[in-house]
Amino acid sequence: MPDFSSRDPLAPGFWDERFERQFTPWDRGGAPAELRAFVAAAPASLSVLIAGCGSAYELALMLEAGWDVTAIDFSPVAVARAKSLAGQSADRILQADFFDYAPPRPLDLVYEQAFLCALPRARWPAVAQRWASLLAPGALLAGYFYFDNVAKGPPFGIARAQLDALLAPHFDCIADEAVTDSVPVFAGRERWMVWRRR
Ligand SMILES: C[S@@+](CC[C@H](N)C(=O)[O-])C[C@H]1O[C@@H](n2cnc3c(N)ncnc32)[C@H](O)[C@@H]1O
Questions:
Q1: Does the beta carbon of 97 lie inside 6 Å of ligand 1?
Q2: Residue 156: CB within 6 Å of ligand 1?
C-alpha cells in the first residue's frame, strides 16, 4: 500500500489522495451484477441518490433505464473522475456531503455501495439516521453491505446483528443475497440487500 499523508476517512482529502494515486481497491470498474438484475426487474422509473459515488459507474445503467439519478461525493477528485466517465450525463454528479445534501425531489431509492464501510463505525448511527430521513415509507435502501470484524479500516466491516440494530428501527429487510462478482477486497464478505423504509 502506498504511504498516504491523509489518515482520516471523514475528510474529503483522504479520498482525494487515494483517487489521485489510483489506489482504489473498492472500485468495481462497472455496475455490478445484482444491481443490473435489480434495475432490469424494477417495475417503474425510480428517483435515486447514489451517495459517496466514487467513479459512479451505476449512473449510466440507471439513466439508461430511465431513472432520475443524482450521484454525490464530497471528494473533488472523485467527482472529477465520475464526471469524466459520465460524459454528457456529468451534470447528474454533484460535489456534496451526504450529511448535508437535500434532494430536490422525494427519493424512491438510495443506492449503497462501499459508503457505509468507508466511514468509521462511530459514524454509522448518523448514516442510518440520514438514510431514514431521506426516504419516506415504502422507499428503498438497496446495495452492497460488507460484513467483517477487522478493527482497522476502511473498509470497516459490520456484523449482521449490528446492521440489524442500525436499520431495523426504520427499515424491513426484503432481500438478502450472495454476491457473484465482488472485487477481491470484498470477496465472500458482502451481501446484496434491499431494505424498505417503514
Ligand atoms: C470506498 S469509496 C466507494 C466509492 C463508490 N461508491 C464505489 O463503490 O466505487 C467511498 C466514497 O465515499 C465518499 N464519501 C465519504 N464520505 C462522504 C460524505 N460524507 N459525503 C459524500 N461522499 C462521501 C468518498 O469520497 C469516496 O468516494
A1: yes
A2: no
Strand bridging mode 135-146 / 93-95: unpaired
Phi, psi of 98 (to 5 degrees): -50, -35
Contact yes or no for 110/49 (Cβ under 8 A): yes
Cell matching residue 188:
465472500
Q: Find out whether the beta carbon of 78 lies less than 6 Å from any atom of ligand 1.
A: yes
**C-alpha of residue 53 to centroid of ligand 1, in Å:** 6
Rounded distance between C-alpha atoms, residue 8 and residue 28, angstroms: 23
Residue 188 backbone class (left: φ over 0; alpha: ψ -120 to 50; beta: rest): left
71: which 3 cell numbers? Answer: 450521484
Whole-number Å distance between alpha carbons of 2 and 21: 8
Residue 194, beta-bridge partner list: 142, 175
The grid coordinates of residue 112 equal 449503497
CA distances for 40 relative to 47, 103, 111, 142, angstroms: 15, 24, 15, 14
Alpha-carbon distance values, 182 to 2, 48, 171, 190 (Å): 23, 23, 25, 8
Q: What is the pLDDT of residues 37-93, one digit of tens each?
A: 999 999 999 999 999 999 999 999 999 999 999 999 999 999 999 999 999 999 999
Is pTM beyond 0.85? Reply is: yes
Residue with the smallest CA separation from ligand 1 atom 13 is 52
